[in-house]
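Hi U.,

Before I forget, here's the chain from the pilot set. I'm dumping it here mostly so it's searchable later in email.
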Amino acid sequence: MKLRSFLSGLLSVVVVLLLVGLAGLVWITSHSPLSLVERGAENTPGAAIFVPKQAPGMVSLLVNPDELEAFLRVAVAPKQRRQAQAELTQLKQGLLAGSGLDYDRDVKPWLGDEVTWAITTLDIDRDRKNGQQPGYLLAIATQDPEQSREFLQLFWQKRAIAGANLVFEQYQGVKLIYGELPIGAKPLPTPTIAGSDVPTLAALLPSPTLASAVVGDQFVLFANDVNVLRDAITNVQARNLNLSQAESYQKTVETLTQPRIGLSVWNVPRVTDWLATTTTANRGPEATPAANRPEPPIQTVAIALGLQPHGLLAETALWEPKTTAAIAPALTAPVPALHYIPVSSPIALASTNLAQLWQQLLPTLTAYDTGATLLEQSLERLETRWGLDLPKDVVQWVQGEYALGVLPKATKVWESLKQKPKAAAPVPDVVLQNDWVFVAQRPQAQATTAIAQLDDLAQAQGYSIGNLQLGGQTVAAWTKLTPGNTTSNTLQAQVRGVHTTVGDYEIFATSVPALEQALQAHDRPLTANPQFQTAIAPFATPNNGYVYLDWAESREFLTQRIPLLKVIELAGRPLFSHLRSLTLSSYGRQAEVQRGAVFLQLD
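Structure:
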């Protein structure tokens, strides 16, 4: 009896200890900086009530910067923490560059859990005769209204000292302050801690005029024009005018289910007009950027940004109101065709049913100037180099799985040869080019006919079709005899392309060494690369495959072909300086919303 009582008491103590330990674990986990990885799936920007329905775009940070700083201290490797801390400090202080204020002293005590920046309109006064001046709004959540008012008072004191003419106004019960620095006024000093790569308040709100307000003891608002502030306050009063009530906003945001620390929403037609306005030189006041362009099928893009142990995961939702057919994702694992893409490939694409993908992407790409230009240039290069009608000669018969890879070998050989002070012989032109490998599943009858047509196309361009043995594999090669060097009477065979059948797949390559790498890759494919495994791990399944870019190895290749990437890289230099790889995937379509994700693997 005593033993039973003792065991019962011991069991009770054990249960209590387990419950206390579990409660402690829950508390520690919920208060740990790493909880940011799992927190906030339901977070939406409160400042959306200030933004008009038709605004071009909005970007929101939905956590306090101090929480991000604490997360970095835990998540970043010890040897990189000092650098991460310095970069975050630059970002925080850079926002106030030129204002004479300090983040830790003047902002940190009252800053809440949201900072939202929006382009509210493409033209504040809606008068094309005097050019276009976009409206910008910055909304900062406050957890201490009194201290945030003291901040504004100090902010405007600094502006007044610099010579700004201040105006105070009551608008629908809200106190507005605005003013501008007169021509010739001495600018405020820029804090030395701010680097040239971090955004400043002047960059976020580009205008000599600045306006501010505190609304409802919840938000501090800044705008580049007082009319932007008036409109923002009106949007709160008339709920049907603000972005939070827009159908596009609600339908896209509700499909974003991952934990997030940030959210951005973009009106695609208006963003297109904005980019055209800001990047086209000498545009007349009567110009209409979208006049000759068809209406884009994608009207709204929403992006939820979440933290991952190895980087950032951006979940995307694209609203296509005229497309309601649901498309389920087809893959639960990387396609086996990737087994023929070498482990060192810096660029790879793998999915299934290329014909269907082409039909879906074509109207989307051609609806935008940038997309149409890239598509036309790519098809023109293929036509010039290969005499190839890509949609007709390749795309339409690839209805199974496929994989495309770029090989780095040629570039690395070229770099090694350049380092030699005296090369024994001139470097052949082929060394300057990247090799490609394309693997496609063969639907037997259709593929056989299509591949035979490719051989006929090569012959029509003057290439001979011959067979050679490569590792016991019969390979068809498209070759042309060309003169050798000028000191001999020899001829050399120029190989334009090779292909072979392996099981259910047809493998194409731009050279014999590239095909040899593809055949040998089965023992060490890209899927065995730890960096690739990390790059695809965050994606949900099922999905529609992956587009993978090893940024360090593919940067030069990509920026040479897509000049816009240089501009994007410059604008996001703090992020791109740490970027290891970028991977995209699609999750199919639910009614009017197409879902996907982008993972940025960071150092």
